[in-house]
Design a protein that fits this description.
This protein has about 290 residues and is an alpha+beta fold. It has seven helices and 15 strands. The protein starts with a helix and ends with a strand.
């Protein structure tokens, strides 16, 4: 396969988190000459490929084959790549099957590397990320096989290809706020406790809230509301329950406790429940 053929093949897999849709089996066969280990955990598939060319440093390429759901608005099947006007359209073209394709092809063609080349691929990067790369790193540590250097081929360009190389990663904390009120008839609002009314005065303090000011490596840790649901989709019943979901891509200056404390203070006095899910954790590595 040439690079374009490999890219189109990877894009054809309907690998919505955490389902790899068989793509890792294909990659394992495609990368013949590399030793393969599966480090699957729960519903997540993880593949480790490695090849020793000689004595030297261990360089690892890391990435993921899973993609977010395609959503609406496509003019073509998101898992049947469309080549149009010099662009390829499909779910996962940027994040991150193009990057995976690039380093697979580079490693497959490598002949004179001095050391060890390895590849780590997971099917759960776009989800909670609890059973993916973390589990592979635990395994590598137990085998005393941790890489000396790692390159993650996530899309980081801002304007021109190759203009940005990131040396760290923000964390990801997901939250669900459930607010409980009392359902009623719209004609008698005084007899109900409308959950939309309860949170309306709080939204400007919630949406877009920055927990820190950022630093030279990271933007501020901002709360992004991703979903609000309440009511019965009728016009004459006031809602007695509301569910709000959010995400915080946090820097090293903000953690789960900071977010929990802020939400609890903001919603103090309301009947509510907060659930937080810690996904990836932030880190910064060296530029050298």
């Amino acid at each position: 396969m040439n690079t374009k053929e490999l890219f189109l093949k990877l894009l054809s897999y309907k690998s919505i988190t955490p389902d790899d849709a068989g793509s890792l089996d294909f990659i394992e066969k495609y990368m013949s000459g590399f030793s393969a280990l599966r480090v699957d955990s729960n519903d997540t598939k993880n593949l480790l490929l490695y090849k020793e060319f000689g004595r030297g440093e261990h360089l690892c390429f890391a990435g993921h084959v899973d993609v977010v759901p395609p959503g609406d608005g496509w003019s073509s099947d998101p898992f049947e790549p469309l080549n149009k006007d010099g662009y390829i359209y499909a779910r996962g073209t940027q994040d991150m099957k193009s990057g995976v394709c690039a380093f697979l092809q580079a490693c497959k063609k490598a002949t004179n590397f001095r050391g060890i080349l390895s590849i780590v691929l997971t099917s759960d990067e776009e989800g909670d990320g609890k059973f993916g790369t973390i589990e592979v790193l635990k395994y590598l540590k137990s085998r005393d096989f941790l890489p000396d250097f790692a390159i993650v081929a996530e899309p980081t360009c801002t304007e021109v290809f190759g203009d940005t190389i990131k040396i760290g990663r923000r964390g990801s904390i997901n939250g669900v706020i459930e607010v409980f009120g009392k359902q009623g008839h719209a004609a008698y609002p005084e007899k109900s406790t409308n959950t939309i009314n309860l949170i309306s005065p709080l939204l400007d303090k919630l949406t877009g809230h920055n927990f820190d000011i950022g630093d030279e490596n990271f933007a501020p840790s901002q709360l992004v509301v991703t979903d609000i649901r309440s009511g019965m989709e009728v016009t004459n019943v006031t809602p007695g329950y509301l569910k709000l979901m959010f995400n915080v891509r946090n820097s090293t200056k903000t953690d789960k406790n900071d977010i929990e404390d802020y939400i609890n203070r903001l919603f103090d006095g309301l009947n509510f429940k907060l659930t937080l899910f810690q996904g990836a954790k932030p880190f910064v590595t060296s530029r050298d």
